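Appendix B, record 7
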Amino acid sequence: MKIEEYLNTLPKSIMTGEDVELQDDTLREIFEFASLNKDDIFYHLGCGNGHGLSIALNEFGVKKTVGIDTNNEKISLAKKTLGDIDLSKWILRCEDILETDMSDATMILFWFSDDIIIEKMMSKFSMLKKDCKIITIWGPLPDCLPDKVEFPYILNRVPFKKANNLKEQVMAVFKTDCIDFLIAWEFAERYSKVIASKNIENNRFLTILQTLVIWINAKNLGIACEDDIPPPIRSYMGILKTYFNIEFEHLINQDTL
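Structure tokens (predicted):
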């Protein structure tokens, strides 16, 4: 089956990241990357168990945190996490992020993969106060040039800088003139470590999938370092097709070979 068909067989919660809770050390890395500080009002969209809000308050001393989630059980967990902290410092809302008011935000953690939601949120983000920071993981905001990157963490500031095209955006994210197998693997592995599960084999499988996606996208955009498909990429495509019945070849624009 084609990779798109395989992804459609997976539970939606896996694809959207709904059931993935970022580890505390990952949250700390994100906050350090974004220079979160005592003057910030931090919004966590999809706040889950509330650990991000707690760390922002207890370790980075932010002025206020706001957690948004549509899952009542997660909001309850977040309330328990924040229970001993001054009530004036935090707010939890069980509501759709498309409906929530974020006008006072100075930093937002936005880890969503649904293209429809992302596109709808762009108009809300663009109306936020000047210099508000939007942090994403893996993918940049659509059509925007990042203000800062420590992959897989990406920061955009309001007002957004528009990219002339996808090629310019990808090169800004990867900070390189061309992408080879080793670069693709390194960046894919960084992402896998950020959302690591307890199953090492699953993490390696994710790294392989993301490596292929990165390299193929680079090839189609004309920024792969190789003219031909490098042996490791060809080998992994063969393994996935032979042992997992997952096919990637159709994604490669034949005109680029």
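Remarks on this record: Strands lie at 41-45, 64-69, 90-94, 107-110, 133-137, 144-145, 148-150, 153-157, 161-162. The CA atoms of residues 43 and 108 lie 5 Å apart.
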